[in-house]
Design brief:
about 30% strand; single chain; 6-stranded mixed β-sheet; alpha+beta; 7 helices; 2 domains; about 250 residues; Phosphorylase Kinase, domain 1
Length: about 250
């Protein structure tokens, strides 16, 4: 009998459960996968060896990289680059690591996140831990996270304006209705623009209709923002010397 099979048999026999618990099922599958990294294999297996349950609660698994698609870069974090992806069996966020990954490092990540498993990019050979995409402050998927995922999809063309808008969005730690976050509004979403008056501080003032209306809440089914007050009236103020707009000037508005 193969040594690994003997070892697995001993592990199964050592289980104190009087029923066929998930630990036993995981052990029977140990020889059918590997991450290529002993520390990662050991870490995953240890979580599975602790799964003395009927319904799986905390065990991790090795996730083949080809089970992930639509992988997009989100941002850099202390632990490495952060990506967002779709997992065929559930939604995730990936955190890339190099091949010197250790159990100590994995445990630090697991403290503040719900971890589903680990995978490896076959091109870069970077290991990635598969996490639940949540806000570290709220411990849920709050509105600030939905805004952050969209940062790369828009720009005002002005770094100060981008930063100002993004800061309001990163502060939107709300779960349902958006309260204070701003957004970049494409000019072609405004129509019937009419001059009203001049403002001594900011220049010309206009009135317009905004076709889309303001953000209300995140639609989890359609994966987009639910809006309200479509075609609403809005006021437009032209900022003098708009090419040199600063955060200080925007805050005065």
């Amino acid at each position: 009998m193969d040594y690994s099979i003997k070892s697995d048999k001993k592990l199964i026999e050592s289980c104190v459960c009087d029923y066929n618990c998930n630990t036993k099922r995981f052990i029977q599958n140990f020889n059918n996968w590997t991450s290529g990294n002993n520390d990662i294999d050991k870490f995953i297996q240890n979580t599975q060896l602790s799964e003395h349950t009927y319904k799986v609660k905390n065990a991790l698994e090795w996730i083949p990289y080809d089970r992930l698609d639509d992988i997009k870069y989100v941002a850099d974090y202390k632990s490495g680059k952060m990506y967002r992806a779709r997992w065929t069996d559930g939604c995730i966020s990936d955190n890339s690591w190099n091949t010197s990954i250790t159990l100590e490092f994995i445990n630090k990540i697991a403290v503040s996140h719900k971890v589903y498993g680990i995978t490896q990019d076959q091109e870069t050979k970077n290991y990635m831990v598969v996490l639940k995409d949540i806000c570290e402050k709220c411990k849920i998927m709050c509105n600030s996270m939905y805004f952050q995922q969209n940062f790369n999809n828009w720009t005002s063309g002005n770094n100060d304006i981008n930063k100002f808008i993004q800061n309001t969005q990163l502060s939107e730690h709300t779960y349902y209705k958006v309260k204070n976050a701003l957004e970049w509004i494409p000019y072609d979403r405004l129509y019937d623009i009419e001059y009203i008056t001049d403002d001594d501080k900011f220049g010309k003032v206009y009135r317009a209709n905004w076709a889309d209306g303001c953000i209300w809440y995140w639609n989890k089914i359609n994966k987009n923002w639910k809006r309200k007050d479509q075609n609403m009236f809005v006021i437009l103020k032209i900022l003098n010397n708009s090419a040199s707009i600063t955060l200080e000037l925007i805050n005065k508005v």
